[in-house]
Every structure is written in structure tokens, then in C-alpha cells.
Design brief:
This protein has strands at 2-7, 10-13, 18-26, 30-39, 46-52, 57-59, 67-72, 77-82, 91-100, 106-110, 114-119. By secondary structure, it is an all-beta fold. A hairpin with a 4-residue loop joins strand 7 and strand 8. It is elongated.
Length: 120
């Protein structure tokens, strides 16, 4: 089993910053890709950013230039530095990881989500 635990959400004023963390633990041989998704009330879950094992990154247009995704491979931990936050960034942020277990089987896992609220 693999567990993803997010932290770092909270309430911040527009223009402020937050840093989210996602720590993966359990039966992990390697992690192919990790990513952050978000879901606002009444909207579908959307990709915010992702990062593959080699370090390549991908961002949603709405966060480019404001958010930075990174990962610490030895610690199986991913981060999302969010700057210049806007009220429209308000959502529950979910961590996702594609993990290869000790049987060399890849599977997708999700964290429980962390709330980010940006006040105007």
C-alpha cells in the first residue's frame, strides 16, 4: 500500500504565498510522476502541475509564472510553491502519484486533499 499525505494548505490573502507538500510512503520502488490537481466547488478536478521522475514539468496556463512544482526523489516528497495567489485559486488541492511497487506494478494514488482559500 502507498499513502500520500498533503500539508501546507490554509487561508491567505490575495497576492500572498503558500507552499504545499506531499509525502509518499509505503511500498514504493519508484515514482514515475507526481502532480497537483485542484477542485473548486461546482467544478471538475483539474491539473495544476505535474513533474516526472526526470524532472520535466508541466503547468496549467492559469498558474504559469506563479506556481512552481518540485520534488525530492530520495524523500518521495513533492512541493508546490504558490505565489501571487488569486481568489480563483481557491480549491481543494490533491496530490497524485504514479507509483511502481516492489512487484514492478505501477498504480495511481491520491492524497486526501488540502484546502487552499484565497481571500480578496
Amino acid at each position: 500500500q502507498v499513502r500520500l499525505v498533503e500539508s501546507g494548505g490554509g487561508l491567505v490573502q490575495a497576492g500572498g504565498s503558500l507552499r504545499l507538500s506531499c509525502a509518499a510512503s509505503g511500498s514504493i520502488l519508484s515514482i514515475n510522476a507526481m502532480g497537483w490537481y485542484r477542485q473548486a466547488p461546482g467544478k471538475q478536478r483539474e491539473l495544476v502541475a505535474n513533474i516526472i521522475s526526470g524532472g520535466s514539468t508541466n503547468y496549467a496556463d492559469s498558474v504559469k509564472g506563479r506556481f512552481t512544482i518540485s520534488r525530492d526523489n530520495p524523500k518521495n516528497t513533492m512541493y508546490l510553491q504558490m505565489n501571487s495567489l488569486k481568489p480563483e485559486d481557491t480549491a481543494v488541492y490533491y496530490c497524485h502519484a504514479n507509483v511502481v511497487n516492489y512487484y514492478h506494478t505501477p498504480s495511481n494514488y491520491w492524497g486526501q486533499g488540502t484546502q487552499v482559500t484565497v481571500s480578496s
